[in-house]
């Protein structure tokens, strides 16, 4: 499908205390018409600034913004207002006017677009049916829950039939149940109305629930992007890894480490069909080693799974023979998952040094190493003990 939004090498520079601050640096994004595209990252990553360039609430210092292939970067006046009328915006804080009713809040958007008064009430009723708030048409914002306020905000953003909907942390102020309801509503709007949605979040649950494609930002730079499953199933950048690990929550309490038997700690990350293979039992039986699962978690992107296990691989034989068998078992484990690394806890020097290592299969474009030490990458170090 054709791109509806293209950000071409966009940079945004602000001035702070007389010095330039680059909030967005050379970002390029392609959003296909009809998809839900996510931009994720920790606070201060530049997500909101980047998205606000789409409707030119922030003007790029350099680069281009294209809508339907048309360069809109320099639009002003009536042409800019016409562009913005086709792009709805949903804010984290709802931005409702407290002293007017729900109907009047939505009517502001219709008035701004010069919709005749006779057509406003029917359109408002239609929008409130869409978001499930017909009975709240004459209520005031103070009489609404947080989720209901966000539904009104969504209705207002859709008032003038936009083709694009921008959502800036639209669920981060909501509880889990309400978040799920708002996400279900946005998915229905996307499917039924064909509205393209660009959604900013730092919440992994949101990303996995509704995004088709995702871009990960850090310090104003897009560090990784692709399909949501590929990006989070095989994260390449440390920021993406941190997001995934925070979501999966895989860590061994430090107090338990002294109680662990001798062995080597391996973190395995698997995805999709690999989640259903009897990997642990197969390798344990073939190599006659003990593999204890110490911790793990799994998340689903629709029917596709990503997960992490921390296992302890131990020899059943002592000395060099046992060390060799353990290494062979580890090589087999790491060759059959999307990503793996050995954790930096030396439990028993007699069966091999425990150093930080990364093993990768074709998901990273390389073959797994024959020996653990060959795969050592100091830059990839990340201590996962809590």
UniProtKB/TrEMBL annotation:
Gene Ontology MF term list: ATP binding; ATP hydrolysis activity
Coiled coil: none
Statement: the UniProt record of this protein carries the keyword Kinase: no
CDD domains: ABC_MetN_methionine_transporter
Gene3D superfamilies from the UniProt entry: 3.30.70.260, P-loop containing nucleotide triphosphate hydrolases (3.40.50.300)
One GO biological process term: amino acid transport
Pfam families in UniProt: ABC_tran, NIL
Record-linked InterPro entries: AAA+_ATPase, ABC_transporter-like_ATP-bd, ABC_transporter-like_CS, ACT-like_dom_sf, MetN_ABC, MetN_ABC_transporter-like, NIL_domain, P-loop_NTPase
Domain ABC transporter: 5-244
Domain of life: Bacteria
Record keywords: Amino-acid transport, ATP-binding, Cell membrane, Membrane, Nucleotide-binding, Translocase, Transport
Protein name: Methionine ABC transporter ATP-binding protein
């Amino acid at each position: 499908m054709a791109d509806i939004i293209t950000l071409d090498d966009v940079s945004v520079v602000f001035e702070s205390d007389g010095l330039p601050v680059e909030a967005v640096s050379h970002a390029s994004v392609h959003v296909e018409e009809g998809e839900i595209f996510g931009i994720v990252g920790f606070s201060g990553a530049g997500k909101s600034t980047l998205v606000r360039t789409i409707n030119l609430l922030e003007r790029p210092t350099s680069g281009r913004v294209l809508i339907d292939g048309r360069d809109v970067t320099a639009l002003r006046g009536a042409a800019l207002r016409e562009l913005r009328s086709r792009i709805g915006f949903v804010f984290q804080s709802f931005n409702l006017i407290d002293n007017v009713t729900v109907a009047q809040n939505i009517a502001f958007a219709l008035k701004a677009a010069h919709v005749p008064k006779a057509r406003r009430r029917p359109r408002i009723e239609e929008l409130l049916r869409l978001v499930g708030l017909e009975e709240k048409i004459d209520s005031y914002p103070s009489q609404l829950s947080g989720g209901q306020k966000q539904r009104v905000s969504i209705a207002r953003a859709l008032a003038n039939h936009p083709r694009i909907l921008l959502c800036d942390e639209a669920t981060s102020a909501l509880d889990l149940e309400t978040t799920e309801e708002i996400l279900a509503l946005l998915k229905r709007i996307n499917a039924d109305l064909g509205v393209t949605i660009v959604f900013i979040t730092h919440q992994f649950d949101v990303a996995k629930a509704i995004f088709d494609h995702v871009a990960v930002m850090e310090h104003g730079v897009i560090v990784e992007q692709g399909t949501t499953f590929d990006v989070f199933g095989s994260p390449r950048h440390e920021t993406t890894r941190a997001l995934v690990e925070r979501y999966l929550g895989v860590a061994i309490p430090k107090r338990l480490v002294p109680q662990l038997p001798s062995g080597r700690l391996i973190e395995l990350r698997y995805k999709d069909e690999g989640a259903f293979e009897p990997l642990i039992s197969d390798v344990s039986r073939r190599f006659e080693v003990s593999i204890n699962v110490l911790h793990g978690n799994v998340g689903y992107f629709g029917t596709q799974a990503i997960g992490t296990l921390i296992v302890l691989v131990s020899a059943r034989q002592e000395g060099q023979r046992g060390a060799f068998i353990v290494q062979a078992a580890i090589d087999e484990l790491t060759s059959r998952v999307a990503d793996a690394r050995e954790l930096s806890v030396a439990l028993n020097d007699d069966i091999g040094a425990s150093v930080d290592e990364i093993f990768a299969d074709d998901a990273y474009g390389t073959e797994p190493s024959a020996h653990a030490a060959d795969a050592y990458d100091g830059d990839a170090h990340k201590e996962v003990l809590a």
